[in-house]
C-alpha cells in the first residue's frame, strides 16, 4: 500500500483511529536493528552540488553508495538446537543498549499519543467560525506526519525496494534505441531504409549509459561551440578528414580537441558561403536574413554544424538533421558543440515537423538524391517549407561547367530543375555549385499548372498538419492549413515570438492564455535561477559574508523541454538573457501546439515519450518537464515512469540538471526513482497552499575505469 493510499483511507476518521494507525506504523517499522536503519539512512542521496567528478565505477555491479558507508557485521553463534543466539550475555553493554533503545521508542509513542490527543481536544474547543481553516492546516500536519513515518518504513524494508539500476555494457556508450542498422538489415530493410527509425517492444533497455573512458565536461559557451573534446564523441582521425559535406572538413584535429575556430582558413569559407547565399537572395549579407523574414533554418545533412554555428551569432536558429551514423555522426558532433540537432531521415517517412515549419531549407552536399523516387524527397521538403521560404542546394550537379562535360549529371540536374518548377518553386539565382529556389506564396499556382505536369495537391484527408513518422506522401501538403502565411508578411524576429490576437486565433488561442503562460514562465525561470544559484559552481567563488554567486548566464548551452506547451519556457529564457536554446518537445499524448512554437521562431519536434528520443547520449545540459508526469499518467500507463527516467538519464550529460514540476504524489514516486538512478535530488514545495512540487536533480559524473 502506498502512502497516498493511506492518506485517503485513514485520515478522514477520528483522531483515535489515527493514533492507532501511527502506532501500527511505528511498531511495524521501528523494531529494525539500529545498524540497519543507520545503514539505509546513510545511503540516502547527498546534498546537491556540482562537480561529482571523482566517482569511479569499474563494472556494472558496483554500488556507488556502498562506497560511502561500510556495514558493520555482527557475528552469529548457532546453538545445538539450530537457532541463532546472541553471543553477548543479558548483562552485556549490547543488552543495556537495546533496553535503552526500547525505552526511547516507547517514549516516542507516548509523545505522539499525547500530542494528538491534546490537539484533538483543543480542536473541538475552538469556535466554529475558525474550525474549518484550522482543520485544513491540522490535516496537512497529519498527512506530513504519516508521510514521514511511511518514508522511515520504506527505508526499513531493505534494498529490494530501492534497487539501483545497473550500468549498460561498454558497447552501449553511444546507444540509441530505435536505430539498429544490423537488426534492420536482418529484418530485410535495405536501399537506405536500414537507417530508418524502428521502435519495437525490445528496442529499449533499462540501464544507465556510461560516458566514454576519457570523457570530459564540455567547455562553457561560447568556447564550447568552437572546441570539443575528442574523447566525448565517437570519431576517428580519418573520418575528420573524409569526404562528404564541405562543412565536415572545416575543423582541425588536435591532440585532445577538435577545433572549429574561425582562425581556420577553411572556416572563413562558411562566412563567405553564407554571404554568397544572402546576395543570391538579394540581401546585403547574412545579417539581413531576419529582415527578409528568415529566422529558422532546417539544415539537411549539416556536416558538423559549422553553417548553423555561424548563423547562430546572427540570431538565426538552425536545426540540423542527418541519418543515424554509428561513428563520425554529424548529429552527435553538432550536439556536442551545443547546437540544435536530431536524427532525421528522408528515406521513407515524413519528418516529425508540422507542414509550413521552416523559413529556409539548406542542403550542402547533404547526400540526398533529390532526383530519385519521382521527386518524393522534394515534395517532403516543400511540405515543411513556409510559403515564400527558400531552398538552398549546393552540389556538383548544379555546376554548369561540370555537367556540360557529363551528360548524366546534366540529365539529373534537369530532372530536379523541372520538378522544382512543377511544384511552384521559382529559381531565383544560380552561382557556381549553389542554387536558390523560392517557394510560391500563392496557392493558385498549383491550379494554374498544366494537367499532369507535377504532383497533385493533397486532399484534406491526406494533408495531415502534424504527421508523426507517417510514410512519405506523393502529393503537395500544407495547402489546407490556416497557417499559409508568406514569410514576408510575418512580423520579423524577435517581435515574431509575441503573436497578436488574429495570429493566435489560427491556433485556437486567446491572448489571455498566452499572456498567462508567459507571466508564469517568467516567474518560473527567475525562481529556477534563484534555486540553482547556491548549487552551481561559479568561476567567482563566494567570499566570507557574501551571498551565493548567481549562476552565469551561459551555464547552459541547451535545454530539453519535454512538455513545451506554447513554448513559454523558451520565451522566458530568452527574455531573461540566457544564451541557451531550447528543444521544445510536444508529446503526442497531449494538445499539439507545435505549429505555434515553430511560428514563434523556436525549434521543436513532436514525440511519443514511450519511445526513445532521436538523439545520442549525453547531449543536453538540462531537462525540464512541467506537467509531463500527469499527462502520461492520464494515458493509462502506456509505459512506466522508470522507462521515462532512464531515457532522461541517457539524454542528459554528466553533471546536467533535471527540473520536474508536477503534483505531489507523482513527484514522490519520481523522487524514489532518483535513488535507483543514482541522481542527487531534492523536493521543493512550490507554494505553501499548493499540491504541486518541484523535483530538482543532478546527474553525477560516473567515470568508467579504463580496461587494460
Automatic annotation (TrEMBL):
UniProt topology in membrane: Single-pass membrane protein; Single-pass type II membrane protein
Principal location listed in the UniProt entry: membrane
Enzyme nomenclature, EC number: 2.1.1.-
Signal sequence, renumbered to the chain: none
Cellular localisation: Endomembrane system; Membrane
Top-level class of the enzyme under EC nomenclature: transferase
Transmembrane portions of the chain: 102-124
InterPro entries: Put_SAM_MeTrfase (IPR004159), SAM-dependent_MTases_sf (IPR029063)
UniProt entry keywords in alphabetical sequence: Glycoprotein, Membrane, Methyltransferase, Signal-anchor, Transferase, Transmembrane, Transmembrane helix
Keyword Cell division included in the entry's annotation: no
Keyword Membrane: yes
Family in the record: Belongs to the methyltransferase superfamily.
Protein name, UniProt field: Methyltransferase
